[in-house]
Amino acid sequence: MNPTRDQLFAAYALDDRRTPRVRMNFVSSADGAATLHGRSGELGGRTDRALMEVLRAQADVILVGAGTVRVEGYGGVAPQEEDAAWRRAHGLSPAPRLAVVSGELNLAPGDAVFADAPVPPIVVTRASAPAARRAELESVAEVLVCGDATVDLVAMTHAFTAQGMPQVLCEGGPHLFGSLLDAGLVDELCLTVAPHVVGGGAGRIVQGAAEAQHDLALRGVLRDDDGFVFLRYAR
Ligand SMILES: NC(=O)c1ccc[n+]([C@@H]2O[C@H](COP(=O)([O-])OP(=O)(O)OC[C@H]3O[C@@H](n4cnc5c(N)ncnc54)[C@H](OP(=O)(O)O)[C@@H]3O)[C@@H](O)[C@H]2O)c1
Q1: Which parts of the chain register pLDDT below 70?
Q2: Which of 64, 89, 117, 205 matches a 20 to 30 Å C-alpha distance to 35?
């Protein structure tokens, strides 16, 4: 049996919305690849897509790195009507905010991530980011400066909480995952394991982090009829 939307909401429920939390949502092949043909989308399946919507519905902020925005061609994040209704029923805004982490600001105001956004996204950057690019993006986004030489991700999460947005869902990519891990900010990992072995040279879901053993507790396991496994881990 495929998990229903209600079962997904129950399996991934947040016990306390006031405690700040960074939840990671990633997909991997059975042999550990984070991408197939350069993107993650081909690894996922129908339940993985349904789960993504359920996790988005529960989030205050959807966080992505600039690399993922560029490669995956991120557009605006607009929930389906039933998810918007779920959010309203739970006292949340109709849609989560999208936040893009970028130090270089190699993003254009005309990109779909800004042009198709129902609400202007947040661009999280550093004080030393190129000033002209920052000025351009200020016309289409809220620019949040965290850190001087690099983006300070701890300061970012504090800023989100101060704005009433403590529940962060990070959808990638691997370098942002690595930086969040190094900063001690990863509270949950929602990992879909796809029933494929893909070989090739694809990287893993974490890149650039220092080697260390970060222990996780297994909070839930689901599977679907297509052979996908859905693992919920918490710190
Ligand atoms: N398997 C999955 O679930 C999954 C999920 C998402 C993405 N992906 C795949 O991952 C690939 C992209 O990976 P990626 O690692 O290059 O992308 P990424 O982690 O989304 O983006 C990395 C970029 O984020 C910006 N950044 C700024 N400050 C940062 C900080 N403190 N820590 C980390 N990043 C910071 C930098 O952008 P600037 O250069 O602008 O400064 C950096 O180049 C794509 O192929 C995508 O399809 C897979």
Answers
A1: none
A2: 117
* Rounded Cα–Cα distance for residues 125 and 85 (Å): 32
Nearest CA owner, ligand 1 atom 34? 176
150 alpha carbon to ligand 1 midpoint, in Å? 14
Q: What integer pLDDT is reported at residue 122 of this predicted model?
A: 98
CA of 85 to the centre of ligand 1 (A): 31
Q: Give, in order, the Cα–Cα distances in Å from 10 to each of 2, 7, 182.
A: 14, 5, 30
Whose alpha carbon is nearest atom 7 of ligand 1? 173
Distance 83 CA to ligand 1 centre (A): 27
121 lines ligand 1 (CB under 6 A): no
- Considering only the C-alpha atoms of the chain, give the largest distance between any 2 of them, rounded to a whole number of Å: 53
Please choose, from the candidates 104, 102, 103, 84, the residue with its C-alpha nearest in 3D space to the C-alpha of residue 94.
84
Q: What is the pLDDT of residue 98?
A: 97
Q: Which amino acid is at 116?
A: D
Which stretches within 90-200 are classed as H helix?
112-115, 131-137, 153-162, 174-182
Preceding omega of 173 cis (within 30 degrees of 0): yes
Q: Which domains does the chain have, with CATH numbers?
A: 21-30+42-194+220-227 (3.40.430.10)
Ligand 1 centre from 2 Cα, in Å?
A: 31
CB of 68 sitting under 6 A from ligand 1:
yes
